[in-house]
Design goal:
Number of domains: 1
Largest sheet: 5 strands, parallel
Oligomer: single chain
Shape: globular
Structural class: alpha/beta
Distance between the termini: 27 Å
Radius of gyration: 14 Å
Length: 148
């Protein structure tokens, strides 16, 4: 199951992504926002990050204007690995190398066709393990030291 959230800058794209997820019969929960009215991205990034952190949801999708604000905020939660993604190759690497459990999309810079390509790549990719596991362990150690 996927947790999805957006601010006003990502609202339109989020709504299109929901249609895609429904077509693919992928279960999701929409954590908002529910309009294009101005709002603050940390509200939705927090909800999605907590949902993934608790393991109630396997993955998360965040959408804001650039994907940067959402990813910065989501990464403040222990165990969350999120990055803004603008293309298919990066989406594959996010999962393969970093085991990203949340992806942040730039709602003002990509359209639904591009978002679908990115999401397909990310959802289909497998974590490679190996040397990448060692790096994730390093991240976990830093989280233990710096995140209470």
């Amino acid at each position: 199951m996927i947790a999805i959230g957006a601010d006003h800058g990502g609202y339109k794209l989020k709504e299109e992504i929901k249609k895609y997820l429904e077509e693919q019969e992928i279960e999701y929960k929409d954590f908002g926002t529910y309009s294009e009215e101005r709002t603050d991205y940390p509200i939705y990034a927090e909800q999605v990050a907590k949902a993934v952190q608790s393991k109630e949801y396997e993955k998360g999708i965040l959408v804001c204007g650039t994907g940067f604000g959402m990813s910065i905020f989501a990464n403040k939660f222990k165990g969350i690995r999120c990055a803004s993604c603008w293309n298919e190759e990066v989406a594959k690497l996010l999962k393969a190398h970093n085991d990203a459990n949340i992806i942040a999309l730039p709602g003002r810079f990509i359209n639904i066709s591009q978002a679908v390509v990115i999401l397909r790549a990310w959802l289909a990719a497998e974590f490679m393990g190996g040397r990448h596991t060692e790096r994730l362990q390093m991240i976990e150690e830093i989280e233990k030291k710096n995140m209470k």
